[in-house]
Amino acid sequence: MRDFWRTSDGPERGNTPDWVLPFLAVDTEWFNGRAESQSSGSTGTPKTFAFAPESVVAAANATALHFGLTVSDDGQPISAWSALPSTGIGGRMMWWRTRILNWSLTQSRPAVAPRVPPAPGGKPYDFAVATPQQASALAESNQLSAFRTLLLGGAAVSSTQESEILKAAKRAGCSIRLGFGMTETLTHIATRELGQATFLPLSGVTWDIAEDGGLILNAPDRGVRKLRTRDAVRPSVDAKTGRNGFCWLGRLDDVINTGGLKVHPADLERRIAAWVSPLIGLRRWYIAGRPHPTLGMQVTMIVEGDAVKNLELALMDRLSQVHPHPDRPRAVLWMAAFEETETGKIRRL
User: Do residues 18 and 9 touch, judged by C-beta distance below 8 A?
Assistant: First the structure.
């Protein structure tokens, strides 16, 4: 079963590295007609999903069509790269996708800052996947030039992070898109270009918006029918292509009702990031609601690190000037360190 993949450790190492064994177990299950994966648990208790093989095939074909990955420029199999772990749907789907589409996969050891070996033939990999955290590390280590197309997923990308990755990608000549999906949809059902707001659905995917503003998904070929999500969206038009899609506002569960005003934290984070980033530097932060005696909930900025009173005052003063809207943060809460899921997602309080 080694005809379609290789590891970044190289065949000269002899025996298969221990970290590769879970991937081989996934591959064996696929040949036995089984395709399963567990959700990350970032939005609730982790669940195990079992997929029909034809649903996995449909998802793989939709990705190939969406990215134009039918044949490599030199007539060789599509070269792919991944450093995602085998525990999540992203890493598993990359192996299933490679098997189904007859690609050539290089699997690097899963790590926050992965090492990318040269692709077969010395050309950039045709397609690669990574988490936003891994993409930041790849940008900092000048490895983005190793890819023609890089798909991000598994976690949200902050505005500051997106800006830095996009700058590095342009220098490297790498096209990067952010996927929107979940375990039960077999990863991405839509993607957006970094720097753009509109997610464009893949082939075979339709969507609608429920009364509460939540996204409803249909992808019959994947076994997804009228899946009601807890993701708040609004219709949007892609600025480059003119195609219709949707803009992600955040999770319905995260909506802050402050004095009767409903605030979507993720949407607010994007709108104020340009003013916050110069002040806050590399500190991670997010928006959440905290109990308030008169407002019910108060829009609060949660910042990672030790408390710095002068910085707190500067943030509140700056936002009151440039974003004098009722939805702006009115307080700062400091946390020594954010909790994370196994896939690197921040566990929001």
Answer: no
